[in-house]
Design brief:
Blueprint: H1 5-32, H2 39-75
Length: 77
């Protein structure tokens, strides 16, 4: 079944949204790297790093889905 333009638009939109979330997570983690040197701050920074990693995985998964749909549309595989 051929990929519809609407499906591609949705996959592209999902990918862009995931990248935006990833960027926000990176910026949040970076902002915590510049705070006081306390155990609580380090804990927050580590949690932010975990959230950034999760956001990265989400963006990579969305990218793979979008790329796969493009391959199907243009190359039929």
């Amino acid at each position: 079944m051929p990929i519809e333009l609407q499906q591609l638009d949705q996959l592209q939109s999902s990918y862009k949204a995931a990248v935006d979330e990833w960027i926000a997570a990176i910026r949040h983690e970076e902002s915590l790297a510049s705070v006081d040197h306390s155990v609580a701050d380090v804990d927050s920074w580590e949690l932010a790093a975990d959230a950034e990693d999760d956001a990265r995985k989400k963006a990579k998964t969305a990218k793979a889905a979008y790329e796969s749909a493009l391959r199907e549309k243009f190359f039929n595989f």
